[in-house]
Amino acid sequence: MGRIQFLIRCMFRHKLRTILTMLSLVTAFLLFLMLRSVAVVFEAGWVDFEETRLTTQSKYSMIDRLPLAHEDVIHSIDGVVEVTHASWFGGVFKEGETGDATFAIDPTTYFKVYSEYVVDPDQLAEFQSTRTAALAPESLMEKYGWEIGQKIPVISPIHPNPTGGPWIFDLVGTYASPDESNAFLAFLFHYERMVDTFAYGTAGWYMLTIDDPDRADEISAAIDKKFENSSDETRTMTESESFRQFAAQLGDISLIVTGILSAVFFTMILLTANTMVQGYHERVSELAVMKTLGFSNASVSVYILAEALLMCCISAAIGIGVGTLVVIGIQDYMPPMIPIYFDPITCAWAGLIAIGLGALVGSVPAINANRLVIVDALHAH
């Protein structure tokens, strides 16, 4: 009998208990992978926005809007190349959904600021010339099965249609980003469609490109100084910093995830340790016989420790595998407010946690096995 086969037989000595313990561990590692895949986005460690692009928003709150007159003032600042604006529309395409990103934009300047976006020139020209036109990212096209030329009804609780029905947009094209993982792609439509809403004449935020990323702080300060002590003061920052601050307003996601996972794995330590300790007590006489047959104290301890490591590593492998498939499968369908991103480093951390967990829960029975006295063990059983 090989050593691995021997370990597996020992591990499944009490099949039901072992299977239930492993299922709990699989669930724990599945939760770890999925929750960390959300937290990594809000930590913004993987975000690589263009640092030549800045964002200007209200100084006091992201929901406060800014006058359209700010655009010309911003454009006049030395170092500013292009300026555009966008407004959060809060559109919902299907009743009961949380909503996808929908922006009201300036069609003539938006793709100058976001020049990396890929859009067919003919579709862009039609979008710019048609007041009811809209562009959708490829991810939304696939999600809802839309086709170019289709009319898209959109309901917005933030900006309801004065007619009482949904807003209707003509889908004239689609667009994409060369790097989908670092893009925040939205359903785009003409800002002029908002002429009948209270928000017309104001913008949610401004995006601008600058000629030198090394001057980002200088240009940001110059923009904010222009509106200092006015009724619409601003706060300008790089796009990556804007994303991080937006994420921070939702709460410390990383801390929340860490708290949840700490509770989960603390419970798993108790559960797995209980399984290992019970298994050890049930096999004391067998371990004594192994020592009688010539197994050294160290080799018996190693077998006990290896059993715990094997249980944790197999469970982790299953949990990581299932979690990876789930995260990759759903990351393109998550709403912008709850993004998810598969990071291979998360898998590496899960593997290290599995090894650490196995070593921890296996150490106590392994130490006891090493100290086990043959005569006392046989006499007790």
Could you explain how this protein is built, in words?
The protein is of the alpha+beta class. The protein has two domains: 3-45 and 252-380, no CATH class; 65-231, no CATH class. It has helices at residues 3-11, 15-42, 70-75, 110-113, 121-129, 138-144, 216-226, 239-249, 253-282, 284-292, 297-330, 344-371, 374-380; strands spanning 53-58, 66-67, 80-88, 102-105, 118-119, 133-137, 151-154, 167-176, 187-190, 202-203, 205-210, 234-238. The two termini are 26 Å apart.
Q: What general form does the structure show?
A: elongated
Number of helical segments with 4 or more residues: 13
Largest sheet: 10 strands, mixed
Overall mean pLDDT score? 83
Structural class: alpha+beta
Portion in beta strands: 15-25%
Name the poorly predicted regions. Answer: none
Helical proportion, percent range: 40-55%
Tally the structural domains: 2
